[in-house]
Design goal:
alpha+beta; 16% helix; globular
């Protein structure tokens, strides 16, 4: 066995052979409020599961760096080529900018977006009728988007999302 080959073998038992810079899955909830009957409003969750993202929990580090108690709790990095699927049907979805998404009055099942106020959860969490409060009561790692940066230059175009 050559030395170069031996150096590429993980030293720990059960260590992953192929690491990924984007190892996490998150579930994005685009919540739409539509008029219902009479005085009631209906909230519709458009749920998208993103596989291949990086979620960094960094509240303490952000507070130390900025001195602000309201600093973002997490940073979510979403590559432009992320695998996005409908949380209910499993059908593939494509990203559209927020203005285009919210102007779309037709079926939104094939598109997704992320904007300030969007709720996301670490992992695959699909609850069609859940509100943000219900998600927070039932799951750890539920966040609301506070900033969206679209980094569409360089060798790795991606979204950088801040959330609390």
């Amino acid at each position: 066995m050559s030395i170069t080959h031996r150096m590429n073998i993980p030293r720990r038992m059960n260590a992953p052979q192929h690491g990924s810079m984007f190892p996490h899955t998150v579930t994005v909830y685009n919540q739409e409020v539509v008029p219902g009957d009479k005085l009631n409003e209906i909230t519709i969750n458009h749920i998208t599961v993103l596989e291949g993202v990086l979620l960094i929990s960094s509240k303490a580090a952000n507070i130390r760096a900025t001195g602000l108690e309201g600093a973002d709790a997490v940073n979510l990095h979403i590559p432009f080529g992320v695998k996005a699927v409908d949380g209910v049907t499993g059908a593939e979805k494509k990203y559209v900018d927020p203005v285009e998404y919210w102007r779309t009055e037709a079926d939104k099942s094939g598109i997704w977006t992320i904007s300030i106020g969007t709720v996301f959860v670490k992992g695959r969490v699909v609850e069609a009728d859940a509100s943000r409060t219900a998600l927070e009561l039932g799951h750890d790692d539920v966040y609301q988007v506070t900033k969206v940066d679209k980094l569409d230059f360089g060798g790795m175009p991606h979204f950088e999302i801040g959330g609390n």
